Structure to design on (271 residues):
């Protein structure tokens, strides 16, 4: 995966975490204040809601009642974030990253796992809220809709994780492949031994061409993802290129659009 893209995704989630942390702090502060004022639970809930909905923009620090200052949204293959103040008042904070679907940069697997955990927490909370009736200002059907949406988010993340892990496993830790490799190595050594021990040159060549050569091909295919001979222009020099499985082998872009950073305003400290 492109380093800039990884960097941008990292920066995006850092900002998102900062925004969520700020929201938690704002919530805790307003609850403390309300408790000092001896407000009733319903009044506290109202104040908390107003505070959360009026959180400052993470970039310009401006706020407007009833309008969260920054919107972070992950939809399909895009990560988006922007200043949510009204036109004329909003700042230039505006991010759009097409992440593609990669398997399995460990980082993305981690991010997905975080999503999964967050989603699970939300589901538990919604379930508890509905069980204990902490939803006085929300109609049951609204609650149910939220619940269903969250369950669907959870299933998406879960499906993605299983898919990522399966692919990672099939490439790196597949016991079938390991067994085959061991088997092929054994055959190779056996054939080499036969060639060494034979006194008949014809037999040696035959074993090499008919038996050892195909085994060697299989061996390299299992062990390396790339193997080719490259001739350096205008010379008689040939380079034999092999490349063992590396992290880029483990990345698959399954997205429909080319992954990349569409917008990241203002710049995130990288030239
Ligand atoms: Zn702003």
């Amino acid at each position: 995966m492109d380093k800039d893209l990884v960097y941008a995704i990292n920066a995006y989630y850092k900002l998102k975490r900062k925004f969520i942390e700020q929201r938690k702090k704002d919530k805790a502060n307003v609850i403390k204040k309300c408790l000092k004022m001896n407000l009733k639970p319903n009044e506290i809930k109202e104040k908390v809601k107003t505070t959360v909905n009026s959180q400052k923009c993470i970039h310009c620090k401006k706020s407007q009642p009833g309008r969260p200052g920054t919107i972070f949204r992950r939809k399909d293959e895009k990560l988006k974030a922007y200043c949510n103040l009204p036109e004329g008042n909003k700042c230039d904070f505006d991010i759009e990253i097409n992440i593609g679907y990669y398997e399995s940069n460990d980082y993305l697997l981690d991010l997905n796992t975080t999503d999964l955990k967050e989603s699970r927490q939300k589901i538990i909370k919604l379930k508890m809220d509905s069980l204990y009736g902490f939803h006085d200002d929300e109609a049951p059907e609204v609650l149910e809709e939220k619940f269903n949406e969250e369950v669907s988010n959870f299933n998406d993340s879960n499906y993605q994780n299983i898919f990522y892990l399966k692919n990672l496993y099939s490439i790196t830790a597949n016991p079938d492949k390991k067994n085959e490799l061991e088997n092929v190595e054994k055959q190779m050594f056996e054939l080499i031994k036969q060639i060494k021990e034979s006194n008949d040159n014809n037999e040696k060549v035959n074993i090499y061409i008919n038996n050892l050569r195909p085994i060697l091909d299989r061996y390299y295919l299992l062990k390396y993802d790339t193997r080719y001979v490259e001739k350096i222009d205008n010379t008689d020099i040939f380079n034999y290129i092999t490349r063992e499985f590396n992290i880029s082998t483990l990345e698959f872009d399954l997205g429909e659009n080319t992954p990349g950073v569409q917008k990241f305003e203002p710049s995130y400290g990288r030239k």
